[in-house]
Amino acid sequence: MKLAVVQMDVAYGDLAKNLDKILAHLESESAAGTDLVVFPECAATGYVANSIEEAQTVAIPPSALRPIEDACKRLGIHALVGYAEQQSEAVYNTADLFSPDGRIFSYRKSHLPFIGIDRFTAPGNELDIVETKFGKIGILICYDQRAPENARTLALKGADLILLPTNWPEGAEMSANHISRARAAENHVFYACCNRVGTEKGTRFIGQSKILNPSGKILAEARDEETTLHAEFDLAGARNKRVVIDAGLYEYDVFADRRPELYEPITKKEPSNK
Questions:
Q1: Per-residue pLDDT tens for 175-197?
Q2: Quick one: DSSP state of residue 45?
Q3: CATH code reported for the domain at 2-235
Q4: Tens-digit pLDDT profile for the chain (274 aa)?
Q5: In angstroms, rounded to a whole number, what is the distance separating the alpha carbons of residues 197 and 164?
Q6: CA geometry: angle at 128 spanning 122 and 129, to 5°?
């Protein structure tokens, strides 16, 4: 598959402007033969809401993204787009994966940090994967990456590729440069992080988007400007979890070598050292 990661600036609360930019990228990527285009967290709406009223004002219903759905059908392309989702009085931090056949797979951010619109959103309660013609894809959003159990759960469910739309601000360099690579390597999956750039209400976003292979090797990476990353790979390369460095001397299997019977504290709400 050919993957594109669009590191872009976002206009806060300007759905029309953001949609124009997203649709333009879909047109150009379709012409270039790209299969899947990933956009940042809250790419359609913006992120830095400072009250529940602002969050409710900037949030949109899923139907507002119909132009993206229609474009994916017309262009024969997949797209992952993040947005603040409005559902009655609740707001969710959501990413929708649009397919050319009209299917939409929706993921709501499950782990919420105390920053931006996440201070006022409700958490999602599912970690699932979606089947595509390329392979199985899992989706996380930004801070979801911090809990290693999230990526591991998706990988155990069969994910070949994990997509992470994100809004990494200054201070999140560790997530961009190290944690993302660890999540790819420890689960032996392809992994794509799509951050934004620009400044929104005083918060500057650092870019540093990446596409990683199952060993954590960087296939493509960005700095802090608007750009689009590309990589081509076969998702089947993530399915054999046995890694052979030196046959018969240095080998490991990231799944078979686990000891689940030792991991009971992981499922407890409070850590045992309290």
A1: 999 999 999 999 999 999 999 99
A2: T
A3: 3.60.110.10
A4: 999 999 999 999 999 999 999 999 999 999 999 999 999 999 999 999 999 999 999 999 999 999 999 999 999 999 999 999 999 889 999 999 999 999 999 999 999 999 999 999 999 999 999 999 999 999 999 999 999 999 999 999 999 999 999 999 999 999 999 999 999 999 999 999 999 999 999 999 999 999 999 999 999 999 999 999 999 999 999 999 999 999 999 999 999 999 999 999 998 877 666 5
A5: 15
A6: 135
Q: Answer positive or negative: Cα dihedral of 21, 22, 23, 26.
A: positive
Q: Which of 177, 239, 241, 257 lies closest to 212, judged by CA?
A: 177
If you write DSSP's letter for every residue of 95-134 in order, what string do you get?
EEEE-TTS-EEEEE--S--SSGGGGGPPPP----EEE-SS
- pTM confidence score: 0.96
- Give 172's DSSP letter: -
CA angle 182–147–220, rounded 5-degree value: 35
Residue 109 is a catalytic residue: yes
φ, ψ at 270 (rounded to 5°): -105, 135
Active site residue 142: yes
Q: Which of 109, 136, 194, 210 is catalytic?
A: 109
Catalytic pick among 142, 193, 200, 221: 142
Mark whether 194 is an active-site residue: no
Q: Out of 29, 41, 69, 85, which one is annotated catalytic?
A: 41
CA distances from 6 to 79, 149, 227 (A): 11, 27, 6
- List pLDDT tens digits, range 22-58: 999 999 999 999 999 999 999 999 999 999 999 999 9
